[in-house]
Design a protein that fits this description.
- By secondary structure, this protein is mostly beta strands.
- It has a five-stranded mixed sheet, with no helix packed on it.
């Protein structure tokens, strides 16, 4: 026969969640600030979504206060169109910032971790013309890698990627080449001068 002491298994304690107690939108000197306050330190996770353009800030281990509301109206001329706060999961609060355009954004937290400030403003690249120059191309392969990779193919792939990122940031991008063709050095500089580029990235 079996003998021993029966031990009742204790239920796992529920996660002790913090509370988001305030989300306010402030505007000053062309910059919009989203202030987030909680009763415990927060660890924000930021990601960007497109179509429509928006930023998502997840706060793990947090719940929204039931009385939470925005403390100020949005500015008509601002880049922030709407701010929504909700509970993405039982243990994750979410704040979504809908934007009318691509913006520069920075996230700061207070020393005690209970406040976060999200600063957004129009991109300094808006209206700027940048020439992106993938090196080599055509009959000029550039360096050839151990496995046979041509430098001209690598520079073109990177150039197209950089061009896409700059365009999303509001810049007007002109490429010296979009495909595997030969472009002389003099043609590259002449193109930059012709479009009155603000920057030449090669």
């Amino acid at each position: 026969p079996l003998s021993g002491v029966a031990v009742e298994r204790q239920a796992e304690p529920e996660m002790d969640l913090g509370r988001v107690v305030n989300v306010a939108v402030l505007y000053e000197s062309g910059t919009e600030y989203i202030l987030i306050e909680a009763d415990t330190p927060i660890d924000p996770e930021l990601r960007r979504l497109r179509e429509p353009e928006r930023l998502v800030l997840d706060l793990p281990g947090m719940q929204l206060d039931r009385s939470l509301g925005l403390a100020s109206e949005l500015v008509d001329a601002g880049v922030v169109h709407a701010v929504r706060a909700g509970q993405a999961e039982p243990t994750v609060s979410r704040i979504v910032v809908e934007r009318g355009e691509v913006t520069e954004h920075r996230l700061f937290t207070s020393p005690d971790g209970r406040r976060a400030v999200f600063a957004l403003r129009r991109s300094h690249l808006a209206g700027r013309t940048i020439v992106v120059d993938p090196g080599h191309g055509g009959r000029d392969p550039g360096a050839i890698g151990y496995s046979g990779t041509y430098e001209k193919d690598v520079t073109l792939a990177i150039g197209l990627l950089v061009a896409g990122m700059l365009e999303q940031a509001g810049a007007t991008v002109v490429m010296t080449r979009h495909e595997d063709v030969t472009v002389e050095l003099s043609q590259r500089s002449s193109l930059a001068n012709a479009v009155e580029a603000d920057a030449f990235v090669s």
